[in-house]
Amino acid sequence: MASDLRLTVLGSATPYPAAGNPSSGYLVTGGGTRLWVDAGSGTLGALQRYARLDEIDAVWISHLHADHSADLLTAQYGLLYADVRREAPLPLYGPPGIADRLADFLTNGERRSPVERAFDVRELSDGHCARVGSLDLATREVAHGMPAFALRVEHRGQSLVYSGDSAPCTTLTELAAGCGTLLCEADGDDGGGVHHSPEEAGETAAAAGVGRLIVTHVGRAIAPGDAVTRAASRFAGPVAYAAPGAVFPVGSAD
Predict the structure, then answer these.
(1) Are 25 and 11 in contact (CB under 8 A)?
(2) What is the rounded CA–CA span in Å between residue 193 and residue 108?
(3) How many degrees, rounded to 5, is the angle at CA 86 between CA 80 and CA 88?
(4) Per its UniProt entry, which superkingdom is the organism in (predicted)?
(5) Of 5, 1, 4, 2, the residue nearest 137 (C-alpha)
């Protein structure tokens, strides 16, 4: 049976939003399930072109740098104090300590901000697995110099892997093995042990045997077209750029 698994790019800019391009954030949908993956600055606004906060089934956060998580702060206001009505807190998968990090920003007095009223917090760990609606999620810890995770989403034989922010590492290659689409960061010429270059993104895609590579989180010193060309020099399959608003059907590697 054909899958309806899709990736919608809410934003892909780093390390801060560009005009017309929010920071890192994606909407993954399949079988009627909606998963908000990373919540960088500006992505909450872009998300509402496709779904309201009361229509999202869960949020998944790769790590706690602001260009991947800052819009959780404004999402809390929407969930608790505006026109959003949910029967239960929004499930939030994120790195250890994510609830206290949000509370540190949101607390304005002696009483801790009620983060758990807005979010049902579920901390990630290496090898963490979960099912959200019709989507199966698998998480691996990756190399970013801080607690950081990559995600594999599967639905009816189709698979998407998102690197989050990471240098090339064994756990990411293992997670991406045989996936239909790899969404991989390509932050600069020298990843510095915490990021992929475009060439390294291509190498990771080739080593994992993926069906297609989408480069995202492209550093400001690199034109998106150049990032695609450079990644394609190391990967023989199709390569695309995660342009804001782009929608990609997710296939299998077969």
Answers:
(1) yes
(2) 37
(3) 95
(4) Bacteria
(5) 5
- Please spell the DSSP secondary structure of 134-150, one letter per residue: TEEEEEEE-BSSSS-EE
- What's the sign of the alpha-carbon dihedral 228, 231, 235, 236? positive
Q: Give strand pairing partners of 120.
A: 91
CB 98 within 8 A of CB 24: no
**In the 8-state DSSP scheme, what is residue 242?**
-
| Whole-structure pTM value | 0.96
How far is the C-alpha of 145 from the C-alpha of 164, rounded, in Å? Answer: 13
- Phi and psi torsions of 213, nearest 5°: -115, 135
Closest by alpha carbon to 70, among 109, 24, 115? 24
What are the b/e assignments for 8-37, b being 16+ CB within 10 Å?
bbbbbbbbebeeebbbbbbbbbbeebbbbb
Residue 5's nearest CA partner among 126, 179, 150 is: 179
Determine phi and psi for 211, rounding to 5 degrees. -80, -35
pLDDT for res 252:
62
Average pLDDT estimate for 11-16: 96
Between CA 34 and CA 33, with CA 127 as vertex, the angle to 5 degrees is 10
> For residue 16, what is the DSSP state?
S
pLDDT tens, residue by residue, 81-101: 999 999 999 999 999 999 999
Tokens for 124, please give them: 């990630």
**Domains plus CATH for the chain?**
6-249 (3.60.15.10)
